[in-house]
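dumping this here so i dont lose it
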């Protein structure tokens, strides 16, 4: 039985390049008692299976995004540039926790700007769904801080 030598491997590499350039799907090469068959059809099948899976995942993502649409009035945004603090001092409890019911006007957090601590108050009454900002995190004007249900 003949062995595959370096020339054969080089030829196979060249053939692979031709496959890509000329969109060939199958080729057979016979040399002595052995033959090599190269096919890109299985590659196309896996690509189509993967692409159909990706399409299904995207559809599921879009459905879940529709369910999780958040109204803009339920998002508390940063009114200024500064550093956000979730409690009055490091030893104190945070002003709010996830799942907590707050009333309109309750203090949610502090933003330090130019050595002045500014209270960020709840614009609406509701339940805290998510606290996006971390303690001692720098924030920019308009950054999302907290989301209400």
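and the seq i came up w/
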């Amino acid at each position: 039985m003949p062995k595959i030598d370096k020339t054969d491997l080089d030829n196979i590499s060249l053939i692979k390049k031709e496959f890509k350039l000329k969109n060939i799907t199958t080729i057979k090469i016979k040399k002595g008692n052995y033959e090599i068959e190269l096919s890109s059809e299985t590659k196309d099948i896996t690509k189509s299976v993967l692409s159909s899976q990706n399409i299904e995942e995207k559809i599921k993502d879009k459905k879940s995004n529709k369910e999780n649409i958040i109204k803009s009035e339920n998002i508390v945004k940063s009114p200024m540039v500064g550093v956000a603090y979730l409690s009055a001092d490091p030893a104190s409890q945070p002003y709010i926790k996830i799942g907590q019911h707050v009333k309109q006007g309750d203090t949610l957090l502090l933003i330090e700007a130019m050595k002045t601590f500014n209270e960020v108050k709840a614009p609406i009454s509701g339940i805290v769904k998510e606290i996006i900002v971390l303690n001692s995190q720098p924030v920019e004007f308009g950054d999302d801080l907290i989301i209400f249900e």
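DSSP finds two helices and ten strands in the chain.
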